[in-house]
């Protein structure tokens, strides 16, 4: 009977060791995903701040042409 008890105890010990290794692996994956998420969040915030503070030069460029274009090409005299 002692060999059977010894075998059962060894199996339980192996189960506990394997369980700790699985928990360790899952914790490592969780930490890696947390770090990647934190870096992505910081990058998104930095991009949003950059877009908010960067002036829009295209808007100023389009406004310059709005004033130059008037309907001066056609006079009342030219119409038949």
From TrEMBL:
TM stretches of this protein? 29-50
**Per UniProt, which keywords does this protein have?**
Membrane, Transmembrane, Transmembrane helix
The protein's name in its UniProt record: DUF4366 domain-containing protein
Name the species this protein comes from: Dorea formicigenerans
